[in-house]
Amino acid sequence: MKATILKLCGNHSLQDLQRSVNSGAPYIGIVFAKSKRKVDPTLCGKWLKQIEKGNDQKYVGVFVNPTLQEIAHVLSHVPLDIIQFHGTESPEEIIDIKLSTGLTVWKAIHHNQNGLTKMKSYNRVVDGYVIDSKVKGAWGGTGASFDWESIPAYNKEAEVQGVQCLIAGGITPLNVEEILTYSPQGIDISSGIETNGSKDGYKIQLIMERLKIL
After folding, report:
1. From 92's CA, which of 35, 47, 65, 203 has a CA 20 to 30 Å away?
2. By C-alpha distance, which of 198, 197, 179 is closest to 188?
3. Nearest-angstrom CA–CA distance, 73 and 177
4. With the C-alpha atoms ordered 165, 168, 85, 135, is the resulting torsion angle positive or negative?
């Protein structure tokens, strides 16, 4: 059985980034969109110079409806490996940015009755998906989950497209074993590894143990 992919997202301090990188998780998420976890690119660049990530670890920048200029500004300070689009970006807009940056691109899909149809519209455009719950007034990072019985259908579509698919929203050390029963390719966790708004090393360790990564 393939190991479950893990992304630790919403890192918004030097300490957060150190704890997430030190965990060995393959994907480290940083938010550059309007959010309580948004970070300043200049400051983030300074933090990352103090951290040595593993060769197999990748930084994922999260954006909502960004312009190419906004992404270029972030990339001038932060060595991102992946751009994650979390808004209403069209396939054409994503292709433009993908060609301009040469980076891997992921698209967040908000789960609803049209989620699979939306996902299919990005076939051959993106390199991966994050399936998240939609909460009014927020693009993500809310800690709210969706109906996990839908996970196999999203997995199947991702397999057809030959790309990765991570599940986000409301995942914690207490319920991660439940979501694993639906065999997600990967999970994307932010608030579930925090205590008082900061990444909690113990909770990260619990997640890693549940995923049998440690």
Report:
1. 35
2. 179
3. 39
4. positive
The pTM assigned to this predicted structure is 0.93
- Segment 165-208, tens digit of pLDDT: 999 988 999 999 999 999 999 999 999 999 999 999 999 999 99
> Backbone phi, then psi, for 190, in 5-degree steps?
-130, -75
Q: What's the residue count for the chain? A: 214
SS3 195: strand
**Tokens representing 197?**
């708004």
The single residue listed with the structure tokens 């994503």 is 94
Dihedral in degrees, nearest 10, Cα atoms 110, 143, 7, 133: -10
Amino acid at 94: I
- The position carrying tokens 């789960």 is 111
For residue 88, give its domain range: 5-210
Tally of domains in the chain: 1
Q: Angle of helix 14-23 relative to helix 201-210, nearest 10 degrees?
A: 30
